[in-house]
Amino acid sequence: MPIPVILDCDPGHDDAMAILLAVANPAIELRAVTAVAGNQTVGKTALNARRMLSLAGAYQVPVAAGCDRPLSGALEIGDYVHGESGLDGPAFGEPAVPLDPRHGVDLMHDTLTAAAEPVTIVAIGPLTNVATLLRRYPGASDQIREIVIMGGSTERGNHTPYAEFNIYADPEAAAEVLGSGVPTTWVGLNVSHQALVTTDVLDGISALGTPLADLCVELLTFFGTSYQRTWGFEAPPLHDPITVAYLIDPAVLGHVRVGLRVELDGAHTRGATVADLHRRMDWEPNANVGLTLDRDRFWNLMIGAIDTLGSRQGGHR
Length: 317
What we know:
Largest sheet: 8 strands, mixed
Keywords: Glycosidase, Hydrolase
Strand order of the largest sheet: 3-2-1-4-5-6-10-7
Number of helices: 12
CATH superfamily: Ribonucleoside hydrolase-like
Domain Inosine/uridine-preferring nucleoside hydrolase: 5-300
GO molecular function: hydrolase activity
Number of domains: 1
Strand content: 15-25%
InterPro entries: Inosine/uridine_hydrolase_dom, IUNH, Ribo_hydro-like
Number of strands: 10
Order of helices and strands: EHEHEHHEHEHHEHHHHEEEEH
Protein name: Nucleoside hydrolase
Radius of gyration: 18 Å
Helix content: 25-40%
């Protein structure tokens, strides 16, 4: 049976690829997409979610805009990576998927309430929507099977030296989700930096020969240029789709169960995730934390998804 999923995201180039993977693979039943402010403002991230669902032909999936700022503090966006639109690179037409009039958090709650079985939340942006859901609807946690999060790192950060962007953008929300009692699995930078979009990956996507493949190459090429300019990476890491790939094929991700904390107060480390990998602290293990990636399995799933959707649409170069 396919896994029912709510995808909470802030598209974003890597979020865009996660949407394609979630739509294409039959192991996932994508029931709703909610947008949060992060890589860009929430109006733009919701538009980008609608754009990618339209390209994927997923016209029936509802999309709603959620929280437009973190639980506390000022909004910081990732436009230095994703550009003015949040999906800079290719040109997009008007999306065919409409914007649901509900607030994203209400769409999440309605989707959970309507489900006959617990639903997995895949959260690949700041965790503001998810934390707000748990605050506003305390009973919602009973309908959540697991929250799979792209966030944090067991090593260093990207937005600051020790904080990964999604967690830095709303560390209070991340701490609340971690402490909620809902099972969580964390895919951090230490994992996603094993999923580099190298030349062979771009060549493999381009060889599919479809308009969708060409658009993905444009997206990932812009993304790579941003990474080269900002961090000096020769190839960018494709963070977000690993969460979806893990649900499709758990062997993609090697993880351990450890005590995890979110740093809220550090003058130089606010937003960092602290994983007690060597059991040095008296912390009860409270989260699954990813360590390793099966790169071949991951890219086979990702390129296969682009191929599947491109073939459905028809047309080749």
